[in-house]
Amino acid sequence: MTRFASTLTLDLQDFRSLSPQLKFFLSIQILILFCLSVLVGVIFSPKFTSQVSLRSGVPLETVPTEAPKSQNTLTLSTEKQALRVGETQTVSVTYDGDSPEVIDSAITYDPKVFRVEKIKNGELFDTVLQSRQLDGRVIFSSALSLEKIRRLQTVRIKGLYFSFTITALQSVKSTELAFVPSETFVWSRKQNILTDTRGTLIDITRSYEPER
C-alpha cells in the first residue's frame, strides 16, 4: 500500500510538471475513458438489457410459439360514420384482451382526405414510446413502466389505448382507417398475442351551403 502511495505521488508530481497543453490533452483522454466505462457498465447491466429486449422489437416473436387462448383485439371507432368537409371528430383506438406489456401500432389514412391531429395516450399504459405521423400513417407505441411489468398478472382488460382527431378535407364516398398488420403488435412475455384488428369506414360529404 505504501509503495502504491509513493508511485501515485510521483505520478502526480510528473503530471504537474507537464505543459498546460499536455495536461489538457491528458485530461480529455481520462474523461473519455471514464465516459466509455460508464457506458459499457450501463449497456451490460441486467436492467438495460431487459428493457432493450422488450422494446427494441429485435428478439421479440411476432408470430407466437403458441396460439393465444383468447381473442385479443384492437379496434378503431368513431362516434359518426359520416362527416361533412371541415368537420372534426375523435378516433378512439381500444384494446380488448389479455393484459399486455407493450402495444405497437400503425394506422393508415388518406392524407388528402383527413388531417390528423391531437394524438393522445390512453388509459392502458403510462409510457409513450413513439407518437408520430409518417407517409399517411399514424404510428403510436406505448408501454407499462418496467416496475409495473414486474408486477403484471395476466387478466382480461378493455380500455382506451390511444386517440387522435381527424378533420375532413374533401368529400369521398368512403374512406378507410385501418391497421397495418406488419407494424401492429400486442406484446406479452416477448410474444405478439394480437389475434384481430378492426378498422372503420367513413363517408365524407360536402359542407352545407345555404341557398342564396
What value does the Rg take, in angstroms?
A: 27 Å
CATH architecture term of the largest domain: Sandwich
Strand fraction = 35-45%
Q: In this structure, how is the largest beta sheet organized?
A: 8 strands, mixed
Oligomeric composition of the shown chains: single chain
What structural class do the secondary elements suggest?
Answer: alpha+beta
> Whole-number average pLDDT?
78
Helix content: 25-40%
> Can you tell me the overall shape?
flat
Distance between the termini: 100 Å
Low-confidence stretches: 42-59
What does this structure look like?
The chain crosses the membrane at residues 24-45. Keywords: Membrane, Transmembrane, Transmembrane helix. This is Cohesin domain-containing protein. It comes from Candidatus Roizmanbacteria bacterium RIFCSPHIGHO2_02_FULL_43_11. It is a single chain. With 212 residues, the protein is an alpha+beta fold. The chain folds into two domains: 2-43; 73-205, Immunoglobulin-like, CATH 2.60.40.680. The protein contains four helices and 13 strands. A hairpin with a 3-residue loop joins strand 6 (127-133) and strand 7. The longest helix is centred in the first third of the chain and has 24 residues, at 20-43. The chain is flat. Mean pLDDT is 78; it is low at 42-59.
